[in-house]
Amino acid sequence: MSLEKDKIDQLAAQYDKADPTEILALALEKYDNIAISFSGAEDVVLVDMAARLLGKKVNVFSLDTGRLHSQTYRFLDQVKQRYNINFELLFPESKAVEALVNEKGFFSFRMDGHKECCQVRKVAPLRRKLSTLDAWVTGQRKDQSPDTRSDVPVIQEDMAFSTPRHTLVKFNPLANWTSQQVWNYIQEHNVPYNELHRHGFISIGCEPCTRPILPNEHERNGRWWWEETAGKECGLHPVKAA
User: Fold this and answer.
1) Which pairing describes strands 169-171 and 155-157: parallel, antiparallel, or unpaired?
2) Is the dihedral of CA 205, 207, 208, 211 positive or negative?
3) Of these four, 35, 49, 59, 211, which has the most CB atoms within 10 Å of its CB?
4) What is the pLDDT of residues 18-43, one digit of tens each?
5) How does DSSP assign 31-77, residue by residue?
């Protein structure tokens, strides 16, 4: 099924202060052709919540950029085995990666900015996947990035990845949660997490673009730290339509 924009806005207002499990239950009720986007602590919380919703098994996908930490690969396997879910890994087009690396080398993002590399390794495969779905679920939180995510609604029309012929709905059940609430859930329900979190990594992406942060640093300081820009995003959740 597909919801009209007015209905999407109405539901977003209605569920704005709802518990994440209620928002996730709504998403799974309204859409059969839906998947959870998986990468980190927030997303495994969503997978655990989905597993507890009447045993509902959902489709889950994750982006394998080819440059993830070995700990992240172990984490992906652990989650797949723990929840016995349909877990799909998405890969970038090999020709696009070859062209980028052969022309600019392995670390062009340090000089040209990270968005070109992210476009090839993340955004393009995500766009390919989302074109096959009616809705997706993300682990975005408003406090993850005050510069770019402070207004994230719990439900929205995904203007970046919708097309004139295909309206994509995006559910962000954890939008109003803090990092502390996420970790409280993980500890309370014994949810698996990436072992890198035990070594100061908060926001975890590709190995060359992720570092541990110091106490009292914001979590986004661990991503693309050589850049001065405040709005650090890779393109998966653009503020405006591309």
Assistant:
1) antiparallel
2) positive
3) 49
4) 999 999 999 999 999 999 999 889 99
5) -SSEEEEE-SHHHHHHHHHHHHSTT---EEEEE--S-B-HHHHHHHH
